[in-house]
Amino acid sequence: MSNLSRDELIYMSKIAEQTERFEDMLDYMKRVAQSGQELSIEERNLLSVAYKNTVGSRRTAWRALSSIQQKEEQKGGQHKSLLTDYQARIEKELSQYCNDILDLLDKTLVPIATASESKVFYLKMKGDYWRYIAEYANGDLLKRATEGASDAYQAASDIANKELKTTHPIRLGLALNYSVFYYEVLNEPTKACNLAKQAFDDAIADIESLDEDQYKDSTTIMQLIRDNLTLWTSEIEGEGEEGDE
Q1: Are 62 and 43 in contact (CB under 8 A)?
Q2: Which of 50, 59, 61, 163 could in theory staple to 116 by disulfide, Cβ–Cβ 3.0 to 4.6 A?
């Protein structure tokens, strides 16, 4: 399927999504993105779904394996080396896909984006994938991932705060994930809460102007922000599972 047209690639990416073949979906949408033509809203969402699911399954696996490792160590660590090797394999796959989309964002998607909404979408995406790397990285890679995420989230916020409505789902999704970054990666719960609360309060104040076609997406993200705020304010002294987009 090397000579598919753009329309055929998009069609096949939808088929791959329906059959939950997300690595195939990723391959189709990556070829669309590499064409150098700016993506439509539908196309960028397909690209996002492809990478999110491909990376998401591995993030889930990594977290589960980390929990298993802790239990194994409590039992004496008989299989520690096997688990460590398997974790390294998962981390290699995570790095492969995260670096893949980060390269695509830096070289193609961000430079050719013209609309403010697209710029925020891609810069948020860049922040997200650096954050995913930061979840498992150590040493210099952790430092680089943390700085990469922070810079991308801030750049996205600068544009969003000037150009997008407070109720826009992309602006809200950015605030949600940026606050999770503060809480989970930077270990700054107060800043996480302040950022999330500001976004939620600003959106509530403008809720009457919420576009009908964005109502479901925006209110769903607002609920996630509120859930995180509730969790963080009640468990700052403990540990919690934060929700992101």
Answers
A1: no
A2: 163
Give the 3-state secondary structure of residue 242: coil
pLDDT digits (tens, 9 = 90+) for 38-55: 999 999 999 999 999 999
Residue 236 burial (C-beta neighbours within 10 Å; 0-12, 13-18, 19+): middle
Taking only Cα atoms into account, the Rg of the chain, rounded to an integer number of angstroms, comes to: 19
21: helix, strand or coil = coil
Residues 33, 107: contact at Cβ < 8 Å? Answer: no
CB–CB of 105/125 below 8 Å?
yes
Claim: this prediction has a pTM higher than 0.85:
yes
Q: Apex CA 205: angle with CA 202 and CA 207, to 5°?
A: 105
Expressed in angstroms, the distance from the first to the final Cα of the chain is 32
Candidates 160, 173, 156; CA nearest to 221 is 173
Residue 118 to residue 96: CA distance in whole angstroms:
24
CA distance readout (Å), 6 to 19, 30, 36, 106, 226: 20, 11, 12, 22, 40
Cβ-based neighbours of 241, under 8 Å, separated by 6 or more: 231
Distances (CA, A) of 132 to 14, 89, 101, 193: 25, 16, 12, 20
User: Which stretches of the chain drop beneath a pLDDT of 50?
Assistant: none
